[in-house]
Amino acid sequence: MHGRVWKFGDGISTDDIIPGRYFHLRGKLPELAKHVLEDVNPDFSVKVEKGDFVVAGSNFGQGSSREHAATTIRLMGVSAVLAKSFARIFYRNAVNVGLPVIMCNTDLIENGDELEIDLNGGMINNLSKKKKLKTKAIPRFMLRILEDGGLLRHIKKYGKFQMK
Amino acid sequence: MNRLGKTLSEKILSARNKIEAYSDDMIVTKIDYVAAHDGSGPLAIRLLKEMDFTRVWSPRKTLFFLDHAAPASRKELANEHKLIREFCRTSGAQFSDVGEGIIHQELVEKYVSPGNVIIGGDSHTCTSGALGAFATGVGSTDVSIAIVLGKTWLRVPETYKIVINGKFDDGVYPKDMILHIIGKLGADGAIYKSLEFTGENVKTMTMDSRFTLTNMAVETGAKAGLIESDEITEHYLRSMGRGKFCNDIKADVDAQYAQTFEFDASNLPPIVSLPHSVDNTKTIEEAEGIEVDQVFVGTCTNGRIEDLRIVARILKNRKVHPKVRLIVIPASRRIYLEALKEGIIETIVDSRGVVLSPGCGPCAGVHQGILGEGEVCVSTQNRNFKGRMGNPDAEIYLTSPATAAATALTGELSDPRDVI
User: Fold this and answer.
1) In terms of pTM, does the model score above 0.80?
2) What is the C-alpha radius of gyration for chain A, rounded to an integer number of angstroms?
3) CB atoms within 10 A of CB B155
4) Do the domain assignments include residue A157?
């Protein structure tokens, strides 16, 4: 994975990612995606490019269970979300919809940095800063769901949760 | 092998799956109910259709509720409701229509019993944990897979033991305590953990109040909030016509807790969460006097009969301040009917309050009381994130129903101990 960084702060809530006022657009995900994170950074949904990374502080995705938050970030072409910590439902949803979520120290990553990430190797290469960074390993079962393209495809493939 | 004593979460997940489940284990668990509402349900149904999953594991245990925008406020949402109605009709899944109530209140009144494992397409699914159940919020994909398989995957959480002792002063309530706890633990203080509430205060607490505690477990990042079952649980289930389902669910005395936190209810003042974060808590003395445009009493946190009684007691023979609009929404039809019989609704309407039909109301920012630019709302709900009530340029203060009612009378954040 290779792309540019969109940096956000701590405690980005699902209301920040997909505001409740767009509730009526939940049936039209591409429409909904146009508003992703707009209250925090209005440029994001307009200028984000395929492959870019969302990088944030702690407790990313806190709040509601709305999976639309993870789905719309993926629909905008974001290749992974990096944060110091994630709210658990967002983390789960991201894995389930096939959006890689990486826990690491994001203090050393700045807006606009160019990153190269090896998910299996657990390594982030910050090309702008010429620095390498280890990530917390993604549990094997979750990695498999990501590789299968999300939980629905995983279940379609195995007919069950393939934990082993 | 008998390793160690088990927490409530470990005990329930072990018994339900006939395994020895301990914290940090990754397991696939059987579930007793899968639930979704008009916010999470339509996506789950669409995903099932897209992926051509036609099987429904158990229609009796697959539950859909209309509560977020019910009745529908616009055609797009009416169509989402239609999608849920049609799915329930063809699959036989249980359907709770407009006006029946909020998903979490409906779950505890009609379905959940101690020892159950429940997943729901809503973060406040943890509410049901007050009945000694393992209940956790998930997204639409998890809901759809649970509808097909009757199972879900999860990591067995470590547990924080939250011990509450002492007695609340008049005008101070479990809502103040849970806000205080969240302020201490922080909004991410218990990510991936479960909270077990216990202590002499909790052991004598009503079920309505216990639901307020477990409802807000997720505001510390927790996966679940649980309370062991006892006579109060049994009495509650009996009053709901489900007394025979009261299993005895207790944690082992030698259960391993990741950490124990002790709180004292005595001398706790009313607590307020300031914008825009639930853990941004202050005492009422520190927040008093802030001018308010709207007061909202309701939601899965504080829309129960006990809450409405407190509000009516404060409003009785008084009038809501002319510059404030007071919106009150009972959490379920059952509560609404009880409030009608007790004269609570009359008291609220007579005091110039507005009573709306059971549902989430303005809490999710969809309808029934969206805030204007720069407006301030005092609410009994569980979240005050920027934009939560439909406008990022508005402010939300979280309080107990008593503080909300006192505030409605004066038009500024007020101490309920002065009017109670």
Assistant:
1) yes
2) 15
3) 17
4) no
